[in-house]
Amino acid sequence: MPSKKVLDEKKNIVSEIKSKVQNSKSIVLFDYRGLTDNACKNLRVKLRDISSDYKVYKNTLLKLAFHDLDMDLDQYLEGPTAIAFSQDDVGAVKILSDVARDNEALVLKAGVIEGEVADKTKLSYFASIPSREGLYTMLAGGMIQIAKDLSIALNLYAEQKQN
User: How far is CA 148 from CA 93, 134, 143, 145, 159, in A?
Assistant: First the structure.
């Protein structure tokens, strides 16, 4: 039987996990086996740039925290699992997908985005969504094209009236 000190430490870890999950807009579970130390460091730097981070916990502690939060993620907690906590809805998903594309050792398992459990398929869908800046650029481009077409039409109309 574990000592009281060990049990208290595990309770603290479970409450830390619950707190991080509750304070995150999204979380992503992934398998990190086979990543080099340098790749892990680069991943942490990329995630930190968008106010995200990842940590590795024991699956049993993750299960306890998820059960307390009424989240059903037990099926994804097989083998070594890391969890990324993000303040952005899809930022961590995009970064992890990019790293997984370049490094076969990283495998996305599942995530929770806006309170919904997302499997691999949903995660790849979220990863394909353009960034906020990209969407603004597309919107601005569309608006500029409309203004350009209108000015050409008005110019042609003015030339027609002059003749």
Answer: 37, 21, 9, 5, 17
